[in-house]
Amino acid sequence: MKKVSFAEFGGPDVLHLIDADEPHAGPGRIRVAVRAAGVNAFDWRVREGQFQGAHPIELPSGLGLDAAGVVDEVGEGVEGVEVGDPVFGEGASTYAEFAVLSAWARMPEGLTFEEAAGYPSVMETALRVIGETGVRAGQTLLVSGASGGVGSAVLQIARDRGITVIGTAGADNQDYLRGLGALATTYGAGWAERVRRLGRVDAALDLAGSGVIRELVELTGDPQRVVSIADLGAREFGVRFSGVAGSVPDALAETVRLLSRGRLHIPVEKSYPLAEAAAAHIDSQAGHTRGRRVLIV
Length: 297
Description:
There is one protein chain. 28% of the residues lie in helices and 27% in strands. By secondary structure, the protein is an alpha/beta fold. Strands 3, 5, 6, 7, 14 and 15 form a six-stranded mixed beta sheet that branches. β6 and β7 (98-106) form a beta hairpin. The longest helix is centred in the middle third of the chain and has 14 residues, at 120-133.
């Protein structure tokens, strides 16, 4: 099978499409013929070796957590899913023609493989960090870097829970944020004052890692009410860096629930052939994403 792999840490040029042995579904796992794989910031951070201190990996290694595809192997002890079922979920080395998933859900009617591949990790992350801030209905959550996949999910989950959201993004994405129910403003010089004019901030999320932790603490008045998924220096300010995944099955169940109620939609900004994984990483790292990027297999 074809698989994206890298044998050294570095820039996008270390990614190569290679021939590899097919993986197989062990106990409690399923294998899918991948139709689409989600591209996450986590993927290029792994490629760069940013997590080697906390979560070392052996090289050469595959990449990718999220996939949507058709079940073609069912491991021992797995119930409720059969060969031929369309599913989406999370596993390992999903930038490939076949991948083993450790958590999955049946794809809702009307959802394409391309769309489905963009949800698993994004929704798990969004649900986790909202919970970690302690924000609740009637309060206001500030989201720095709100137009990407996780931000898009946070805005819609918060709206469903009665939480007001102030979102920062580039000038081109202001209408997009407003369409998801957020109070929107641009980042850049004077952004914190623009946020103050929009209202009180009870909790905040740093999703972009753009050096805004100090201001987020000042706006909330409490570092314990700020969570970052992108700034490894957040702890220097007493802010939690959230990097340990919660329950993916629960996140997938909530994804299906919100999709079925018409309360969730994360657009796919761009799709790339599997052989163009490096280009997908370049675009992902450049930021300014509206929704998700996926690889088509």
